[in-house]
User: What shape does this take?
Amino acid sequence: MSVFTILDVERAINYWRELKPAGQDAALCREARVLADAYGQMIFSHADAIDTSSLSSEQIQALTSALDQRGPSG
Assistant: This one.
């Protein structure tokens, strides 16, 4: 069982926002959008971590790809 902290999710969202900035429509890229869904759920439930079993494969991929690029402390 593996978990990601809310800080991990924030860092990953910011990574994707920097890599693929919003266009004129101000829409987040797909990777940031799927992570924003998890981030919102965490905020709503006052969770500071989320288990990978609660995430889709797309969310896990977006998280791990971003965190692998950023490193553990961003």
In short: The chain has one domain: 3-70. The radius of gyration is 12 Å. Residues 3-70 form one domain.
